[in-house]
Write a structure and sequence with these properties.
Blueprint: H1 3-17, H2 23-120, H3 138-150, H4 154-167, H5 174-185, H6 190-203, H7 210-223, H8 227-240, H9 245-257
Helix pairs in contact: 1-2, 2-3, 2-4, 3-4, 4-5, 5-6, 6-7, 7-8, 8-9
Length: about 260
């Protein structure tokens, strides 16, 4: 029964008994009223405490929402700044790539001019000998391609090395050029990289790049989950190139692949 109604009934009872009520009855009514007041005060206090907790919780939730909004706003600002930075870097990369491709094109044109002059060995009209024609040497083409590889311009480096291989198929740097073509494929096309590494090993087993190419073949096989193929490659490194630094690395990889 609600407290207010109980108080009302108690008061009514006192009025009904009127003058015939004993002192003891009056005291009991007063006592009950006092108890009801205490209980009401406790209930009000409990409600107030609960309300305070609800308000505090609501405040924390609102603070959390505000903090989340600030974090999202800052994240958007940071992301926008990072995107601008990436775009600027892409522009720089495009500019550098364009310069590299123009350099390779220039070297190729110089090579073509040189071959044409050697083939015709002609003298210009008027009897004067032709002046010296700037030419790109095999080393220049190779070094330019290697620089592009080290700068991360894989496509440009690959084109340069392949141009070198096509123009100078008997040059002493052919094993190195084949190896570096494989390097340009490692991330995007591991199978093509492995094919070029195997080409170095099969065609130039005595070259300084053979052991490295064979070891890289093992690494690629291991990365692709081909543990048997990796073991075979590492064992060949140890057997065919026992005094090379790669043999030590191959032994470490074999130890790591043991069940």
């Amino acid at each position: 029964m609600p407290v207010t109604r109980r108080l009302t009934l108690a008061a009514a009872a006192v009025l009904l008994v009127g003058g015939c009520a004993t002192k003891g009855a009056v005291r009991r009514v007063e006592t009950e009223l006092a108890v009801l007041r205490v209980q009401t005060a406790r209930q009000d206090s409990a409600r107030a405490a609960e309300l305070g907790r609800v308000i505090a919780l609501q405040g924390r939730i609102l603070d959390s929402i505000a903090a989340s909004r600030d974090a999202v706003r800052q994240f958007r600002l940071d992301t926008a700044a990072e995107l601008l930075n990436i775009q600027a870097q892409l522009v720089q990369v495009q500019e550098l790539t364009g310069q590299s491709q123009r350099r390779l094109s220039e070297l190729k044109r110089q090579l073509d001019d040189r071959q044409e002059r050697l083939a015709t060995d002609s003298v210009p009209p008027g009897g004067d000998e032709a002046g010296p024609i700037p030419t790109a040497t095999p080393d220049q083409l190779y070094q330019t391609s290697l620089q592009e590889l080290r700068r991360g311009s894989m496509g440009t480096a690959r084109a340069g090395f392949q141009e070198f291989l096509g123009t100078y198929p008997t040059h002493a740097l052919v094993p190195d050029a084949l190896y570096f073509v494989g390097e340009t494929f490692v991330r995007e096309r591991p199978d093509s990289a492995a094919a070029y590494y195997r080409m170095v090993v099969s065609r130039f087993a005595e070259s300084s790049r053979a052991a490295e190419a064979l070891y890289k073949t093992g690494l690629l096989a291991e990365q692709q989950g081909d543990r048997a193929g990796a073991r075979t490659a590492y064992q060949r490194v140890i057997q065919q190139y026992p005094r090379s630094d790669l043999a030590t690395l191959a032994r470490d990889r074999l130890a790591a692949l043991r069940p």
